[in-house]
Amino acid sequence: MLGFGLIKGLSVTLKNLFSPVFTIQYPDRRVGLLALSKHLDKPISKILTETPKIFLLGLVRMVKIPVKIDQFPRFRGNEFVWYDDRCTACASCAKYCPLGIIEIVTHPGGENMQAGENYAIDKFDIDTGRCMFCGLCVEACPYDALHMGTDFERGNYERVNLVLDKETLISQNKNPSSWFRPQFEENEYNPWEKDLNNPKEAGRHEKPSYQNIKNKWVSKRKLDG
Ligand code: SF4
Ligand code: SF4
After folding, report:
1. Confidence (pTM)
2. CB 124 less than 6 A from any atom of ligand 2
3. What is the pLDDT of residues 169-178, one digit of tens each?
4. Domains assigned to the chain
5. What's the average model confidence in pLDDT over 45-68?
């Protein structure tokens, strides 16, 4: 029938016009007054009196609010979380990395001599620009010092800025992914809700203290002997 194709095509357009929208605006979305009030947790009257300019923008749905994308706690971002307090500089992570992109430089720390001495860390770099985020380094870490991170907004203009160095790893927010970390799931830790800054909460067991090691390997042996 003449014109049937046109009607058929327009019906598809009409159907999609009124179907739910699946596109998510990111990193900001434009909202009206109701959504803004909910976002700010403030009544609309207060927005009018305190920030009339924003109120007017809200009237025409032109206020931008950041979008929070919900992810699962096991989501792996393109970064890492490292607890220097838990790290013994054993370099297992660096040895297991198939791409050899973890660089660790240490010097003898002068403690725990009886247990083979510890190491102080001079350099701990991960080149995320070459990383495939396979997680083998995280699996290899015997002390739960290294975790996959959850942040995924680390885009950069220069590759050199994709290297996560020791200082960055120490100072950045700590929201480790619960991927390969059953203790986080047991404790119902959700990296999207809060930071996990306490290194003691990050591991399955505490890093033994110098005194613990000495008791186990030196004092006890003397008694046994
Ligand atoms: S996630 Fe994989 S590629 Fe990236 S540093 Fe760890 S082991 Fe290497
Ligand atoms: S992060 Fe873990 S595996 Fe890597 S050096 Fe530190 S303790 Fe060893």
Report:
1. 0.74
2. no
3. 999 999 999 9
4. 24-69 (no CATH), 80-211 (3.30.70.3270)
5. 92
